Amino acid sequence: MDKMIINGGIPLKGEVNIVGAKNSALGVLPATILCEEKCIIENVPDIQDIRNYISILSKIGAEVNREGHTLYIDTSNINQGKISTIEEETTKMRASYYMIGALLTKFKDVCLALPGGCNIGDRPIDLHNKGFEALGAKVEIKNGFIHVHAKELTGAHIYLDVVSVGATINIMLASVMAKGVTTIENAAKEPHVVDIANFLNMMGAKIKGAGTDVIRITGVDKLHGAEYSVVPDQITAGTYMIAAAATCGDVLVKNIIPRHMEPIVAKLAEAGCIINTYDDSIRVVGKKPLKAITIKTMPYPGFPTDLQQPMGVIMCIANGVSTIIENVFENRFKYIYELKKMGADIMLNGNVAVFNGVEKLQNAKIQATDLRAGAAMIIAGLVAEGRTEITQLKHIDRGYEKIVENLRQLGADIVRVDE
Ligand code: UD1
């Protein structure tokens, strides 16, 4: 069993480079299915979710070659008959839902195992399906599979009852070649929604308004190959910023788009950190004692749900009473039980967690309960004095490239062992 062993209590110091966003690359890869030419995608992180997606594309007939962070993808030989071979991969990850939108556009008929992913709440895909149906498709769910088919896809007016990143992107994938105009109202505005729309536009799509809550897509007959660089990962950047703050360190987080980091910068500043923002980097200096804060998770540009767990570690040791109100995923609090093993004083009531700051976290044997909870466990281990062991690393591997190496570079005493 793989474990991370951390001897905590060392402030992080130095610089860290951020690679491309997982959630963006996970939309760009299926988008390549929509053309019959080669695409070159740069700044793709080397993480398990991406390896899984490469496996999905390869199994259905695409040729995918990787050189460092660049992928060369040729989807001209994708074969509808091979879709049934990707059942295992699709059940492993949430973002496999994008295969539905992309393959619906390509073949007008797709049957896939229902998507998996982190167990952080109910995570329905009803809004994705509502979008496909509005475009003229029929959706049937049976025995763990979803079958979506259409004679033809026609532009429609779609209102999302809840702001959903996945549904916004999936409807874009399903409508770029639909006849006429599709409007998505109450669309998600996350940086990766904009990134995927930009990539589709570089392939010849006509998408306007991505980044606002109304997106208009005018269907085109054909898309062509494109060369594209994935936007930097806002969540990975935020993870290192929070780790710097929690350990009262001094870290320059490089290769990022500072505007995407505003909610995190605001909260770390409230916690008493000194933040300097440059063109494409942010320096975070953590100051003791950290101050209590309140966060309410919201769709972008609100505070991202993916960073409430790492931020929870700061709240464990901040001076006073801090609160998290989780408005996006109801089940994103399992990590609290792990933090309690380390002496944290936290009270959970529905979607509200109240943290009564303690002076120190204690070392313990803890586990990553999902991807971002795993990041929180690492930060907790870096903060706690003594030896902390973290198991269930498969969750962390899904989304963080070289996290042990990067943290060691910043001075942390962290190793990964296979026992
Ligand atoms: C994506 C991200 C995930 C992030 C989340 C919120 C990917 C691969 N994953 O997840 O890392 O935490 O956005 O920023 O990009 N909902 C419905 N019906 C639907 C779809 C969603 O009710 O059909 C609800 C969800 O239960 C949730 C909310 O909408 O409460 C937001 O979910 P959504 O934005 O769709 O998240 P994901 O796409 O699953």
Provide a descriptive summary of the structure in words:
- The protein starts with a strand and ends with a strand.
- A 4-stranded mixed sheet has the order 21-22-1-23. The protein has a 4-stranded mixed sheet with strand order 2-14-16-15.
- Helix 6 links the parallel strand 9 and strand 10 (181-185).
- 32% of the residues lie in helices and 26% in strands.
- The chain has helices at residues 22-31, 48-59, 87-92, 98-107, 126-134, 165-175, 191-202, 234-246, 262-270, 308-317, 335-341, 371-383, 394-397, 403-409, and strands spanning 2-8, 13-17, 38-42, 63-67, 70-74, 109-113, 138-142, 145-149, 157-159, 181-185, 206-208, 214-218, 227-229, 250-254, 274-277, 281-285, 294-296, 321-325, 345-349, 352-356, 365-367, 386-391, 413-418.
- The model has no long low-confidence stretch (mean pLDDT 95).
- Helix 1 (22-31) runs parallel beside helix 2, helix 4 (98-107) runs parallel beside helix 6 (165-175) and helix 5 runs parallel beside helix 6 (165-175).
- The longest helix has 13 residues, at 234-246.
- It is globular.
- It folds into 2 domains: 2-18 and 233-418, Enolpyruvate transferase domain (UDP-n-acetylglucosamine1-carboxyvinyl-transferase, Chain, Alpha-beta prism); 22-220, Alpha-beta prism (UDP-n-acetylglucosamine1-carboxyvinyl-transferase, Chain), CATH 3.65.10.10.
- With 419 residues, the protein is α+β, with helices and mostly antiparallel strands.
- The protein has 14 helices and 23 strands.
- Uridine-diphosphate-N-acetylglucosamine binds next to helix 1, helix 5 and helix 6.
